[in-house]
Design goal:
- By secondary structure, the protein is α/β, with parallel strands linked by helices.
- It has four domains: about 140 residues, P-loop containing nucleotide triphosphate hydrolases (Rossmann fold, 3-Layer(aba) Sandwich); about 70 residues, Orthogonal Bundle (Helicase, Ruva Protein, domain 3), CATH 1.10.8.60; about 70 residues, Zinc Finger, Delta Prime, domain 3 (Up-down Bundle); about 80 residues, post-AAA+ oligomerization domain-like.
- Helices cover about 50% and strands about 10% of the residues.
- The protein has a five-stranded parallel beta sheet with strand order 2-3-4-1-5, sandwiched between helices. Strands 6-7 form a two-stranded parallel ribbon.
- Helix 13 runs parallel beside helix 15 and helix 16 packs antiparallel against helix 17.
- The longest helix has 17 residues.
- The N and C termini lie far apart (about 70 Å).
């Protein structure tokens, strides 16, 4: 049985990777690693079909290192030993370890010394958040890179490559793909290139030729992708427009508009985009004005993901209605962005000596932690002392808003504390 189209079209060098240009584009981190042949182990995390395996195979192809692929859940320690022996015999081996979040301690303990020696360059792939689901011992020895859903233009590029490539793609077939069918294919899979190519190949292989032309229409592609087109435009931007309108409607407190856009996303079966966007909205747009609402959104998303659709639409609708009608505040996002701006500009300075770590021999001789005042030893568990470095000791990042009782109270306390500190 021939390999699927998505497998056959995997890039053989880094320049051919579609999407993820923040990692593999000219001058970007993975591209630089490949160019210098200074590879470090890494974890790629993001949704299915976004190019994690493609990046790994392209790195191997560009560097000419041996490439092996294992699954952390199903392959054994013995399989890892075989890879390690190969690395000892022939030099560096790039190991793509799928589902790395399911790596058990026995396999992890075996891998660690090989990662440290550099004989095995590990590329872990996962759809789970590595900061939560991957053991710190592995995490500390890898760089973590997030991959994003591909854009419609990315998927269109991959489709065109597949239709013209005679060696690995469908170039030997005389395929006519209608414009609206192509546009649908670029948006309906929500950035999952594997699903898009699987749908395209199924359509091409299951549609009889007419006068030697395989004519692929929108209904054929819809059937093969198994998602109905609820809206799309000639530029293929409809999916992202819906998500944008969804967030802006909630931010603008228009409950009915938000429910309409939620309905579009539910109809498309796009649970992933709904879940991610709702949690972003909760903390970006409602935030400190109503923290309990943020917690309830997380619970609603959890319930919806476990219920699945169509039942999952109910907790999602409840969450959307509450977010629309809640007080709004983006002060938390604005505060961290302001602090990160200072860090990016190099504004900071040495950490005050009394705040430095004092839990080691010799710390006192350096003056570290010596003059630290333990707040719990003072009345009201607070004492005046400097926390920010000298160059920015008066910096203010948080600008309280008064759009809800919770943040109003926080703002009053924040103002009192800054005044007590002498700001």
């Amino acid at each position: 049985m021939p390999q699927p189209l998505a497998y056959r079209m995997r890039p053989q060098k880094i320049e051919d990777v579609i999407g993820q240009q923040h990692l593999v584009g000219p001058g970007k981190i993975i591209s630089r690693m490949v160019q210098a042949k200074m590879l470090s182990s890494m974890i790629l995390y993001g949704p299915p079909g976004t190019g994690k395996t493609s990046i790994a195979s392209a790195i191997a192809g560009s560097t000419k290192y041996a490439f092996r692929k294992l699954n952390a859940a199903t392959d054994s320690k013995k399989d890892l030993q075989i890879v390690a022996e190969e690395a000892k015999m022939s030099g560096t081996v790039i190991l793509l370890l799928d589902e790395i979040h399911r790596l058990d301690k026995t396999k992890q303990d075996f891998l660690l010394p090989h990662l440290e020696s550099g004989r095995i360059v590990l590329i872990g792939a996962t759809t789970e958040n590595p900061y939560i689901n991957i053991n710190p011992a592995i995490r500390s020895r890898t760089q973590i890179f997030e991959v994003h859903p591909l854009t419609p233009d990315d998927i269109r590029t991959a489709i065109n490559r597949s239709l013209t490539d005679k060696q690995n793609g469908l170039g030997d077939e005389n395929i006519q793909l209608d414009d609206d069918a192509e546009t649908f294919l670029t948006t309906a899979t929500n950035g999952d290139l594997r699903s898009a190519l699987n749908g395209l190949e199924l359509a091409a292989k299951s549609t009889p030729a007419d006068d030697d032309i395989i004519h692929l229409t929108l209904p054929i592609i819809e059937e093969c992708v198994q998602k109905k087109a609820f809206s799309h435009d000639k530029d293929g931007d409809a999916h992202y427009d819906v998500i944008s309108a969804f967030q802006k409607s909630i931010r603008g407190s228009d409950t009915d508009a938000a429910l309409h856009y939620l309905a579009r996303l539910v109809t498309a079966g796009d649970m992933q985009s709904i879940a991610r966007r709702l949690m972003v909205i909760a903390y970006e747009d409602i935030g400190l004005a109503n923290p309990p609402a943020c917690s309830r959104v997380v619970n609603a998303v959890y319930a919806a993901e476990h219920l699945g659709l169509p039942e999952g639409r109910i907790p999602l609708a409840d969450a959307v209605i509450e977010l629309c009608l809640s007080s709004k505040s983006n002060s938390g996002m604005a505060a961290i962005d302001a602090a990160m701006s200072d860090v990016a500009k190099g504004r900071g300075g040495d950490i005050p000596a009394h705040l430095k770590d004092a839990h080691y021999a010799g710390a006192a001789k350096l003056g570290h932690g010596v003059d630290y005042k333990y707040p719990h030893s003072f009345p009201n568990d607070w004492v005046k002392q400097q926390y920010l470095p000298d160059p920015i000791k008066n910096a203010q990042y948080y600008e309280p808003k008064q759009n809800g009782k919770f943040e109003t109270a926080l703002g009053e306390q924040y103002t009192r504390l800054r005044k007590a500190q002498g700001h």
